[in-house]
Amino acid sequence: MRVSRILLTVAAVGVCALVGASVVGPAAPAASTAAESVVGTYYPVEPDRLMDTRSGLGGQTGPLGAGQVATLQVGGRGGVPASGAGSVVLNVTVVGPTAASYLTLYPAGAARPTASSINYAAGWLGSNNVTVKLSTDGRVAIYQHAGATDVVVDVVGFYAADESVRAGLGRGGQLRRVEPTRLVDTRREGDPIPARKRINRWVDLGPDSPRVRALVLNVTAVAPENAGYLSAWAGDGPLPGSSTVNYAADAVVPNLAYVRAATCHDCGPWYGVPMFSVYTSTASHIVVDLVGVIDDGTLPGGLRFTPSNPTRIVDSRSGLGTSGALGANVTRRVVAPPAVVTDATAVLAMNVTAVAPTTATVITLWPADLGVARPGVSNLNPAAQQTVANAVLAVIGPQDAFHVHNAGGSTHVLADVVGAFTVPAGGTAAEPMRVLGTGGY
């Protein structure tokens, strides 16, 4: 058993998306240890649109055609520094595809990997949050496989590659694991949330709650009446001009999001707790699962991110990682290959895809070899015959393995690793934080 994994006791699931602007704190002195370094810490930016092929923003005018690669400059734009950022978190939206296809995002100038970042059917409307490594000059490549589609890209944050970002932006945030918890399920509360309305929630994570700067949430729209979107944000200001989940009518669409958290001092306990809001543009049920938090960079036991070129580790169609489609109520154990883990690896950042399930189903990932029960949260919620991806942060157990569970029907599964969260040298991963309470405000 690896020492760095001894405290890994619960599942984490996925991430990537809308983040606010205040996970950073005051500038700190130059680092002298791995724990003090800002390398691998997360810096949010105000969501900013970098590309929209409908208007020509970002240099690509008109839909991306079959086999086309667009190059997008990210470094030096949208709050991302021109140097010092190793990878970025993007919200990527597909609008009006003419054929079933996929996009692959990867560092510009690198060989295109055998991996996908977002999968879609003809006519689909949706988005996925994608963590992608930058080229040395701050660019990403976007490959579009079949047919044609418009593409919209918003940047929401970045991970530091070196200490140069500290002088201007101070300390970044660390990922901290939590016991996955469902915070919101409006299906249990009655009618859908009406169009152009919001829900407001707080969550108590104990005395360290005031040090939580962002919540890592899986946000799902369930059976919306019309096409539209959800936006998740801290709730302490006006509705942002960006979306977290884009959906078609009567769909079940999840997306993972880093949502900046404001502090509510009149909710729950005396020490102040993180709060957030979710807005829906049309009437829809809303489900929100808490799967992690970003701290203020000062708590011990946090995890740092190292990006990598996308690497496929699971393709059940070919027997990579696991063999054959997953049947109803089937759990598979997947061992991460040595190419994507080290002794310090605690969490793998992945893009997980369900391929043409025979019925609507739910896909859930959690760590193996720890005797931990499957958590009551979800990573993907594909409809019958829908091929759809979602970003996932998968905690791995002491033998470098994780579980994948399929709830119903039969489906193939793909998993592409885009990076890993590790324990800083000399450190130990903190125990997962627990939800002590939640409510509305």
Description of the structure:
There is one protein chain. By secondary structure, this protein is mainly beta. The protein folds into three domains: 3-8 and 303-422, Jelly Rolls; 42-169, Jelly Rolls (Sandwich), CATH 2.60.120; 175-301 and 432-440, Jelly Rolls (Sandwich), CATH 2.60.120. It is 1% helix and 44% strand. The protein is built from one helix and 26 strands. Strands 11, 13, 14, 16, 17 and 26 form a six-stranded antiparallel β-sheet that branches. Strands 9, 10, 12, 15 and 18 form a five-stranded antiparallel β-sheet that branches. Strands 1-8-3-6 form a four-stranded antiparallel β-sheet, with no helix packed on it. The termini are far apart.
- The N- and C-terminal alpha carbons lie at a distance of 44 Å
| Radius of gyration computed on alpha carbons | 20 Å
Structural class: mainly beta
CATH topology of the largest domain: Jelly Rolls
| Total number of beta strands | 26
State the CATH architecture of the largest domain: Sandwich
Instruction: Write down the secondary-structure element order.
Output: EEEEEEEEHEEEEEEEEEEEEEEEEEE
Count of the domains: 3
Q: Which term fits the overall shape?
A: globular
